[in-house]
Amino acid sequence: MTTPRPALGVAMVLGSGALFAVNGTVSKLVLRAGLNAQQLTLLRALGAVAGLLLLSLVLRPGARRLRVTPRQIPLLVAYGLTGFFLVPMLYFVAISRLPVGLGLLFEYSAPLLVALWARFGQRHRVRPRLWAGLALSLAGLGCVAEVWGELKLDGLGMLAGLGAAVFLAVYYVLGARGVQGRDALSLCTWAFGASAVAGLLTRAVTAGTGSWEPLTGSAAGVPVALLCGYVVVLGSIVPYLLVAGAMRHLPATSVGIVGMVEPVLAAAVAWVVIGDGETLNAAQLGGGALVLLGVALAETARVATPRQTAPDAVTLGTAPPTRPLKGADHVEGGVEAGAVGPVGTRSS
């Protein structure tokens, strides 16, 4: 058993948030170089599953951690398709058309959807603050989109961001209902594997819609291939495992709330590195703050079941799984409203 060390847990969440935040800008640079969202999702999945397979074989108990029963396969496939294929692909579409910080904010509405599902779909009791959180988040998204005047944000980008939030919410629900018994490494490996297969099938159907030539070029003075390497290693594998480790030291709600540093850092990094098109006006900055405050209220809208210390996430195989599950603790056979932290997914 691991002795909880809250300070270490916070450091791990902040570290993962910083890596995910930089990943948003890196991904946008790759997209601007000429790769499309489907291609980047495929590269990310293929690279991540290769790296995670290697780790799974090297670390104890080896290949045994990847064993599954026939009944587990449909859930693992659905889990991978929603959280590791559809969420990132829609997120990439969103940030290719919107500032990185705003694309991430739309995705960050996923915890509200999960909280509403817990209240109305599972009939769980929630605190009144959920409704305040929902109202603040809706108002914040309205400020971000500046709905009082002519629509200034790209409509397809907004729809992609909201679509990513919907699939991220489905992903949380799937995780809370049936995959929390697997260790982080095997769960990520299976999920990225499902994403890679889906990406290959999509590529086969849409052959000729995107060239791989941009991989030989550069963006912002950095080789695109190197940027893709960041997306795979430091933008996916490392931060996922950091959050999985943090779950052994912090409650799910704390992980979710501390992780909300990500959209703030993502917006700042994009503004510094990309500059043009990433600047947010006062209304959008205020709206972003309202969204994050609303999500924080939703995160704490339900009293969590007492949480036991989780065993080692890599060697014993019983720790809460990955970043997208950082708030999806199993409660009364369903989703714990108010303890689901985004994204993801992501997502990013």
Blueprint (SSEs and pairs):
Blueprint: H1 6-33, H2 37-58, H3 73-97, H4 100-107, H5 110-121, H6 129-145, H7 155-178, H8 184-205, E1 218-219, E2 222-223, H9 224-246, H10 252-258, H11 261-273, H12 282-299, E3 330-331, E4 334-335
Antiparallel strand pairs: 1-2, 3-4
Protein architecture, described:
It is a single chain. The chain has 348 residues and is mainly alpha-helical. The protein is 63% helix and 2% strand. It contains 12 helices and 4 strands; from the N terminus they run ααααααααββααααββ. It has helices at residues 6-33, 37-58, 73-97, 100-107, 110-121, 129-145, 155-178, 184-205, 224-246, 252-258, 261-273, 282-299; strands at residues 218-219, 222-223, 330-331, 334-335. The strands form 2 sheets. Strands 1-2 form a two-stranded antiparallel ribbon. A two-stranded antiparallel sheet has the order 3-4.
